[in-house]
């Protein structure tokens, strides 16, 4: 049974931990607002980019089109771009993204495919190193970046395109966590190369009116080539922003739970401490009374 001194030390230690988790929760809450606004603001642009890309892709001849659109004609080598955080203490945020990427990697390997992993963020590489360490070909370090910018996505896109032009892979898939709410973040897989063209519908068509007719200058092939490059960077930037908001939301929830658990532990330890002290006092009284009666 622990002594009173041990219980006092443990209560003081848990109280110090509660102060830290409470401070981290408040910091995450402050960062979450800005990160959520940035992620929300990026979604309409990414959506319109998809619609415009689909609209132009429908007008071009697929024969001789860019490999970024039609692929290399093979799907043997898959590159998984796994984006996670640089730090932990954010609940299951990092592990959920890594779990989705690991499941897809295992499925592809079982089909006889070759899997390569490009890790963006330290935690992704740490989570995947034990099972898939040999497949990690590169890692992007985001430590020290206070505010994400489009230039950071451009650097990752350039590295990705360099690997594609060198013939290092046939299909590239991006893994990130889509921010839904403070308590809900959805791990998402998005195919980047070849571009997955969604069924595009113009605003007029969605509203029930006639679909607008567009004329492009220069021609569609030139515009499509630029859009494909821009789309890769845009989707990566969107993934970075979604991850940033999801990380802060997950950290805020995790630190709130840790603070509550620390409070519960302090209450239990305090009750145990009081009972132990009362037992010691009772024992001393019994010894005094017994000694007095013996005299």
What are the SSEs and their pairings?
Elements: H1 4-57, H2 67-70, E1 77-83, H3 93-110, E2 114-120, H4 122-132, E3 136-140, H5 150-165, E4 171-179, E5 185-193, H6 203-206, H7 220-294
Parallel strand pairs: 1-2, 1-4, 2-3
Antiparallel strand pairs: 4-5
Order of helices and strands: HHEHEHEHEEHH
How far apart lie the N and C ends?
A: 32 Å
What share of the residues lie within helices?
55-70%
Largest sheet: 5 strands, mixed
Low-confidence stretches: 200-207
- Tally of alpha and pi helices: 7
- Which structural class is indicated by helix and strand composition? alpha/beta
Name the beta content range. 5-15%
- Supply Rg: 28 Å
What is the overall shape? elongated
Number of strands: 5
The gist of it:
The chain has 295 residues and is α/β, with parallel strands linked by helices.
Describe this structure in words.
This protein is α/β, with parallel strands linked by helices and 295 residues long. It is 62% helix and 13% strand. A five-stranded mixed sheet has the order 3-2-1-4-5, sandwiched between helices. Helix 3 packs parallel to helix 4 (122-132) and helix 5 packs across helix 7 (220-294). The longest helix is centred in the C-terminal third of the chain and has 75 residues, at 220-294.
